[in-house]
Structures are given as structure tokens and as C-alpha cells.
Write a structure and sequence with these properties.
The complex is a heterodimer of chains A (about 325) and B (about 250). Chain A is mainly alpha-helical. Helix content of chain A is about 75%, strand content about 0%. Chain A folds into 2 domains: about 55 residues; about 250 residues, MetI-like (MetI-like fold), CATH 1.10.3720. The chains are: A mainly alpha (about 325), B alpha/beta (about 250).
Chain lengths: ~325, ~250
């Protein structure tokens, strides 16, 4: 590994004999690419130092967000960020997997290509537009839906809070809507990777489409689904615009899935312009640092799990 | 006795007619081979017999195919494929199932419950039928990717046999294999013909002459000649057949 790095960094192309400007350019770009995340990490860290030295671990022990008296509880938004990512990923998969299977197995020709176009169109809606639409056309109805849910399932914990148009549920629904097209496209791509000769072997045994899907397709694309899960997990956790518009911005633990709360991203987006003290601003950088670490760890986990699965398959 | 009867079968890919009015009788307890140059429709004909042809988008068939006097296009699709099994050109065992599960794939995938004894019994019986038992009995739980190409192909034949079909279609089953594996599979086919009807597509005329009882020669989507293998190879009635067999084209 070290040797590899040395190779990249040894600018042998500066040898005047066979100097190549293009070669040099590529190396500069490569080095810049490596430096970028490191520099961002350093900047985040330096800027969050005042908060770390002043507040220390207290940010992880308090459940209060009161900038005036320097009370910043980070654990609630961190928890909400993870919940929002996980729940919308799972809900998304429950919708996108059947759609992908339908598009690649149960529909032919025009219907399939028509739906694919619709999915692509859905994927290209900017999140701010989706957020705006949700504020005016989805959120007003969420209160009514939540009242019904509360009346029917109120005995289950987390389902008996006060209905609120903006909050966890609204955000999760919209994020799910955002993740579905991306996941569908990815899973559809995975299905095309299943070798045709395996499908034919399956069909030649007299199995139905459903049996082929459950016994051949799903086990075969399992690995890929893991990658899709982590990709959409990262995407769901770091989504800022739609979340900030819909979650309600109350940086406390939610008492039900209806209640307004906040994620790491929504706090940064909503509060950086009004951070009146040095500590306040520094806390926002600390939130950024935590988010960065969270997404980084997610990606590393994805790599490790994929490698593990891959080894088991060989 | 006639097992399968093709009456005026036409097959299409889109508007392209790849089989033109095929009439053919497949006899019971015999090996029937289909020979002919590349692109003559051998494989398509074979895939019509268990309705695998319909898997392709925009593929269609006209005509009648009778299996024991019942029209296969009026039968349940999945029943046809259970009665008429298939072995493909390249070995295609399921890579994520153990060797045993591969043999049992027909049962496992359709959700049939089998006791442990039944599983072992079916597995051993069919691996013995393809002479793979001795080589694989100690590693039934291993993945089939560890087997050689020839062993994988015999595993695929065992998988097809375990389904208890009445006919097995083989699409150039030895073309991806070395001579030793090829001769093992040929022995296997000769050994199986008393229990099961075999229809084999082959590129290799010597192979057709060695293992089959009946041979049909196809050219450009037409069935040129069909008869007892000896007659086809020794005294072909058609000029085209003679030219192909003597190597003047192909």
C-alpha cells in the first residue's frame, strides 16, 4: 500500500527526457482527489475544536438544544438521522424491489419502457422541488392520516403522539419517494446481470416465474442488494433540502413517529445563518464532522460486508 | 411407438421464419439426433419441444406438437417442461446451491417438501445414473463450481433426470467439453435410452452416428431428411444430405 502511494507520488515524468504534460496533469488531479476529503475533514475538525474543548462529551449526554445557554444535545439529531435513513431505505426497498421485478419479468416491450421512463423522470425531480410540493400538497393531509393511525393503532408506543403536518413521518415518506426510483434503477440493473443460462436452466425444470424470482433471482442479486441498501442509507442520511423543509426543526428526541424533530443535516441547514456565538457555529461544524464520520463508516461497512459476501460465494 | 409428433411446425423470431413446416416423429426408447450446419434451426426446433422457444421476446410458434397424443400448446406450460427436460450447451449448475441441492433443484424450487431420507435417496439415485456418485459422494454439500466442466454437465443431466421427465432434450451437450468428458456423456446417453427418450442436437456427425438410432438433417429451417441413422449416413436419399455428410459444405 505504502509502495503504491510512493509510486503515484514519484513524479518520474518530470524527467526532461520523456516529460509528459498529460501524465503530470493526471497525477495532480489524482493527488487533489485524495487531498480533498482529508482537507475537508481537517477543516471540520479545526472548526469544531472550540465546541469540543468547551462542551466536551456533554453534547452526547444532554437531550436539550438551547443555544442561548450553550446547551447542545447532539445525540437526538444523530439518532433521528439514522432512523430516517434506515426506515426510508427499508420502505423504499419494499416498493422498489417489486417494481424492478415487474419491469424486468412481468412486463414486455412498450409497457416496460414506458414505466422505465416514468421512473427516470421521478429520479430527476430535484429534492427542493419535492420538498416544496410536499409542504403544500402532502403535509396538509398528513395530520388527518396521523389522526386515523393514532385512533387505530394508538396502543402501540411511538404511534400515539400528537398529529403534526411536519415531522418524522412526513420526512420519511418523502425520502422513501426519493429513494424508490434510484433503488429501482439499480435493482433492475442487477437483475440484468443474472446469467441467462441460469434462468433457462430454471425454466427448463418446469418452475413458474414466481419460483424463479424467489429461488434464483433474489439469491443471485442478494449481494448487490446489500450495496443498494448502503448506498440509499447514505443517501437518506445525508439528504438535506427535503429533510430541512419537512422535519419541523425541533432538535429533541421525537416522542412518536408524528412529532417534529431534527436531523444533523436539517440543523446545519436551518441554523448556520443565525449562529450568533462562536460556540454555536462551532457546534454546527461538529455536527458536520459527525455526519461525515457516519456516512464514511456506512460506506466502509458496505465495502467490508460486500467483500465478506464475495468471499463466501467464491 | 411414437412419443412425440410434430405436425407442420413453423417457428418465428418476429417476422423471421426460422423453422419451415417441420414434420417429425420422435420414437420411444430411442435416441434421435438432429444435425445440420450452424444457423439451420436445430436448437430452435429443440426448444420448441418443451416450449422454451416462447421464453424469447417476440418468438412464436405455429403448428401442432403432440406428446402422447396430447397437444403441448394446450397443456399446462410448466407440466410440459416437467415432462420434457433439457440439458444445455454449456454446463449451468446453480452456482449458489450445493451439489445435492442442484440435483434436487426441481423439487426445492417448486417448494415440494422432502424428508432427509427422500432427499438422499433421490440425490444418490440420480448421481449414480450419471456416474457421478463415486466422484462426488464426499462433497455433496460443496458448491458445484469446484467440479470440472464434464462433471458439471453430468450434474446438470442428473438435475434434469431427477425431475422424472419422459423426454430429455440435449442441446450440443458436449460441445464445451474435452474428449474424455465427451465420451463419458455419450456412454451415459446410450445407457439411458432404455429408460427415457432422448433428443440431441449435435454439431458432430460422428457423435450422431455413434449414439443415435434416428437422425434428422436440417438445412436453412427445413427438415431435409429423417430416418434410421444407418440409412442416413450410408445411403442418404437426398443429395443435400449426402453433401453435408461427406463434408462438401457445413
Amino acid at each position: 500500500m505504502f509502495k503504491k502511494a510512493q509510486n503515484i507520488l514519484s513524479f518520474r515524468s518530470i524527467d526532461l527526457a520523456n516529460f509528459s504534460l498529460f501524465d503530470l496533469l493526471l497525477k495532480v488531479v489524482a493527488v487533489f482527489l485524495i487531498l480533498l476529503p482529508v482537507l475537508i475533514f481537517i477543516i471540520l475538525f479545526i472548526n469544531s475544536l472550540p465546541a469540543i474543548s468547551k462542551l466536551g462529551f456533554s453534547v452526547f449526554t444532554t437531550n436539550n438544544w438551547d443555544p442561548v445557554s450553550d446547551k447542545f444535545g447532539v445525540i437526538a439529531p444523530l439518532f433521528v438521522t439514522i432512523i430516517v435513513g434506515v426506515v426510508s431505505t427499508v420502505l423504499g426497498l419494499m416498493i422498489s424491489t417489486p417494481i424492478a421485478l415487474f419491469l424486468s419479468f412481468y412486463s414486455r416491450g412498450k409497457i416496460s419502457s414506458f414505466f422505465s421512463t416514468v421512473i427516470d423522470a421521478l429520479a430527476s425531480i430535484p429534492s427542493v422541488v419535492l420538498g416544496l410540493w410536499a409542504i403544500f400538497y402532502v403535509a396538509p393531509h398528513i395530520g388527518a392520516i396521523e389522526t386515523v393511525i393514532k385512533a387505530l393503532f394508538g396502543f402501540i408506543p411511538f404511534l400515539n403522539g400528537n398529529p403534526s403536518p411536519f415531522g418524522l413521518l412526513t420526512t420519511i415518506l418523502i425520502l422513501t419517494l426519493m429513494l424508490v426510483p434510484i433503488q429501482t434503477v439499480l435493482i433492475k440493473e442487477l437483475i440484468t446481470l443474472v446469467p441467462r443460462n441460469l434462468l433457462e436452466a430454471g425454466f427448463s425444470l418446469g418452475t413458474t416465474k414466481y419460483e424463479i424470482v424467489t429461488n434464483l433471482i433474489l439469491p443471485f442479486i442478494g449481494q448487490g442488494i446489500v450495496a443498494v441498501v448502503f448506498l440509499s442509507l447514505a443517501r437518506g442520511m445525508e439528504e438535506t433540502m427535503a429533510t430541512a423543509m419537512l422535519i419541523g426543526n425541533r432538535p429533541l428526541f421525537p416522542d412518536s413517529i408524528f412529532s417534529p424533530t431534527a436531523t444533523l443535516t436539517s440543523i446545519i441547514a436551518n441554523e448556520f445563518s443565525e449562529a450568533f456565538s462562536k460556540t454555536y457555529l462551532s457546534v454546527l461544524f461538529e455536527l458536520g464532522l459527525i455526519l461525515f464520520a457516519l456516512v464514511f463508516v456506512t460506506n466502509v461497512c458496505a465495502k467490508l460486508i460486500l467483500r465478506m459476501l464475495y468471499r463466501r460465494f467464491r | 411407438m411414437i412419443k412425440m409428433k410434430l405436425q407442420d411446425v413453423h417457428a418465428f423470431f418476429g417476422k423471421n421464419e426460422v423453422l419451415k413446416s417441420i414434420n417429425l416423429d420422435v420414437y420411444d426408447k430411442a435416441v434421435t439426433s438432429i444435425i445440420g450446419p450452424s444457423g439451420c434451426g436445430k436448437t430452435t426446433l429443440l426448444r420448441c419441444l418443451n416450449r422454451m422457444h416462447e421464453l424469447d421476446r417476440n418468438a412464436s410458434i405455429k403448428g401442432r406438437i403432440l406428446l402422447d397424443n396430447a397437444d403441448i400448446f394446450k397443456m399446462d406450460l410448466y407440466k410440459v417442461r416437467r415432462k420434457v427436460g433439457m440439458v444445455f450447451q454449456r454446463p449451468n449448475p446453480f452456482p449458489f446451491m450445493s451439489i445435492q441441492d442442484n440435483v434436487l433443484a426441481g423439487f426445492l424450487m417448486s417448494g415440494k417438501r422432502l424428508s432427509k431420507n427422500q432427499k438422499e435417496e433421490i440425490c444418490e439415485k440420480n448421481l449414480r445414473r450419471v456416474a457421478l456418485w463415486e466422484e462426488s459422494k464426499d462433497r455433496l454439500r460443496d458448491l458445484p463450481t469446484n467440479l470440472s466442466g464434464g462433471q458439471q454437465q453430468r450434474l446438470c443431466i442428473a438435475r434434469a433426470l431427477a425431475n422424472d421427465p419422459e423426454i430429455i432434450l440435449m442441446d450440443e451437450p458436449t460441445s464445451a467439453l474435452d474428449p474424455i468428458s465427451t465420451s463419458k456423456i455419450e456412454e451415459l446417453i446410450i445407457g439411458l435410452k432404455n429408460e427415457i427418450v432422448i433428443v440431441i442436437v449435435t454439431h458432430n456427425m460422428q457423435q450422431a452416428a455413434r449414439i443415435s438410432d434416428f437422425t434428422s438433417f436440417m438445412y436453412l429451417g427445413n427438415l431435409i431428411e429423417y430416418g434410421v441413422t444407418e440409412q442416413i449416413f450410408k445411403v442418404p436419399k437426398e443429395k443435400l444430405t449426402e453433401d453435408y455428410i461427406t463434408g462438401r459444405f457445413g
